[in-house]
Amino acid sequence: MKFAYTLLVLVSVLGLTQCKNASQAQGGFSKPAAFGKKAKKQKHIVDLGTSYSAKNYDHINDTARFLAGMPGGINSPLADQRRTSAWQQHHASMDKMFDYFARSRQSSIMSWQGSELGDVSNRNVFYPFGGPDYLYAHTFFPRASRYVLVGLEPVGSVPDIATLSGGDLTPSLNNLKASMSSATNFSYFITKDMRADLSRTSINGTLPIVMTFMARTGHRIQSVNKLSSPAPGFHILATGPSGGTKSVYYFQKDLSNSGISANSNFLSFVTSVGAPTTFLKSASYLMHRNSFSNIRNAILSRSYAVVQDPSGIPFNAIAQSGYNVRLYGQYSGTLDIFREHYQPELASGYSSGQFRVKPLPFGVGYKQTSLIVAKRGVSLDPILAQY
Predict the structure, then answer these.
(1) For a tag site, which of 80, 146, 179, 358 has the least CB within 10 Å?
(2) Which letter does DSSP use for residue 243 in this model?
(3) Rounded Cα distance, 216 and 102, in Å
(4) What is the pLDDT, as a whole number, of residue 27?
(5) What is the pLDDT of residue 305?
(6) Span 57-66, mean pLDDT?
(7) d(CA 282, CA 308)
(8) How far is CA 307 from the centre of its chain?
(9) Rounded distance between C-alpha atoms, residue 231 and residue 225, angstroms
(10) Beta strands across the sheet bearing 125-127
(11) Over the stretch 120-174, which tens digit does the pLDDT of each residue have?
């Protein structure tokens, strides 16, 4: 446990990076724009750049399975690479890592979301500050068809595995595994380590991570396109594990006020197909700062629902924005590195009886004890009707 908490200290690097030019002043929360206000239609918001799809459907999907430590088809072009000791070791390590995730969290989360989230779980998903964490986005919201992930990590590329020598393959696969191990073990990425791991080898950036997570969650990739707007990123089109199309976007984007305006094309793209469910986990309490007011207010005004741990939007800001709220688990405060962001309003919400508090059968986030579900429209529970 001490080891896990030591690792958590490194997570603050994300906050320091996002807030490099941000004000540290704390204050009240400005009221967001009215919910439901439609943004002006933007033409050509997404600029499709390099395509990896047309003639390489099987190759791209096989590459994802290779990165995930999974076997290929009978005619796999990477059959020789899978016979190497480097890949055999990678295969064993990835099986062990994802088996642990399935036992420790995945099955509990999947069961919980099926009974507790209702239609919240099949909306389009917006996951800011989550980086390439498609693993948890899909686990919490398996019925969604569109996911927009945002982080500071570079986009990267689809690696050409066949050209990697034995000397390149081993460190590249080791770095890929290392970059994902904290997410499967502790439910968050250690941003500093991940950025370093995926910048020094031929398997680089966030794209290989998302491809790996998609392969391990039963997706079959149809195409990958690099994007240049509304921010640098990529778009993966895939067939989901239960059929149907999954559309996954990742954007490298600074979400502080210096990086995003209140009416940016980026926010218009996020809501272009309807109000999303916003998912916030291990978000370094960035939106507790005035320097992240634009993204905070945009989420509150444009989301259909918000599912978050306490490190996302301050609880009192959610309560003041007209959402119906349900609480799960217990609020046990913050880690020492985030002690300035202790939320007495949230503590009162858990203890006052104003909200129904239900058990949380899995860990999530930094202290892994608390989850907040806030939804527009009808009350989540009759006890909340008077709130």
Answers:
(1) 80
(2) B
(3) 11
(4) 38
(5) 97
(6) 88
(7) 9
(8) 12
(9) 13
(10) 48-51, 220-227, 233-239, 245-252, 146-151, 125-127, 277-280, 305-308, 370-375, 324-329, 357-358
(11) 988 999 999 999 999 999 999 999 999 999 999 999 999 999 988 878 899 999 9
